[in-house]
């Protein structure tokens, strides 16, 4: 047998492996449900809001032209221009951290792709609703022989919310205040 190849699997072994995978997935989901049930009500509500906004942002990115969405992100600022300094109270800092946790945690488990941009949009919407100023950043990176890569990240003052850490190869091209 060639190195790195696996021996053929019998039908019975294949079915046993499939049953094991289903059982493991069920155990994982049960563990997730128990963990969710143990969360405080505030965090459960934040997760529910984050899941809803992640779904809405994903749908908007698929069906709505980006320029229409971008007009709702806020005032456009060029990267070279200094962003206004945002001073947050202790309660606002806790809220920002909780929203960041809820969005990034929810994005892992939703049944659709919730990468950097839907996360940034959802977190921005959640924090706008709470009257907390944020800055949404857009960056691009081009490596030779590879397609253009894009990334979005969100912060509120000194607090990193979504999309962090930002890889060094990304150059900021726009920000929305």
Explain this structure:
- This protein has a 5-stranded antiparallel sheet.
- It is globular.
- Helix 2 packs across helix 5 and helix 4 packs antiparallel against helix 5 (116-129).
- It contains 5 helices and 5 strands, in the order αααβααββββ.
- The protein has helices spanning 11-37, 41-63, 66-73, 90-109, 116-129, and strands at 76-77, 135-141, 149-156, 159-162, 171-176.
- Strand 2 (135-141) and strand 3 (149-156) form a beta hairpin.
- With 177 residues, the protein is of the alpha+beta class.
- The protein has one domain.
- The longest helix is centred in the N-terminal third of the chain and has 27 residues, at 11-37.
Largest sheet: 5 strands, antiparallel
Helix content: 40-55%
Runs in which pLDDT lies below 50 for 5 or more consecutive residues are none
Estimated share of beta-strand residues: 15-25%
Shape: globular
Number of domains: 1
Q: State the separation between the terminal residues, measured CA to CA.
A: 61 Å
Q: Got a strand count? A: 5
Labels describing this entry:
177 residues; five-stranded antiparallel sheet; alpha+beta; 15% strand
Outline:
This protein is of the alpha+beta class and 177 residues long. It contains 5 helices and 5 strands.
Furnish the topology, listing elements before pairings.
Elements: H1 11-37, H2 41-63, H3 66-73, E1 76-77, H4 90-109, H5 116-129, E2 135-141, E3 149-156, E4 159-162, E5 171-176
């Amino acid at each position: 047998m060639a190195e790195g190849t696996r021996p053929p699997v019998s039908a019975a072994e294949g079915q046993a492996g499939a049953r094991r995978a289903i059982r493991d997935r069920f155990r994982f989901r049960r563990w997730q449900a128990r963990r969710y049930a143990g969360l405080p009500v505030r965090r459960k509500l934040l997760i529910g809001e984050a899941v809803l906004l992640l779904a809405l942002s994903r749908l908007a990115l698929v069906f709505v032209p980006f320029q229409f969405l971008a007009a709702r992100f806020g005032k456009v600022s060029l990267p070279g221009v200094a962003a206004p300094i945002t001073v947050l109270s202790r309660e606002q800092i806790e809220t920002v951290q909780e929203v960041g946790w809820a969005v990034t945690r929810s994005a892992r488990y939703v049944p659709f792709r919730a990468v950097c941009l839907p996360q940034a949009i959802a977190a921005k919407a959640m924090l706008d609703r709470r009257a907390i100023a944020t800055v949404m950043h857009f960056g691009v990176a081009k490596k030779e022989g590879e397609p253009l890569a894009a990334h979005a990240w969100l912060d509120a003052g000194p607090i990193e919310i979504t999309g962090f850490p930002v890889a060094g190869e990304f150059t900021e091209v726009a920000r929305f205040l």
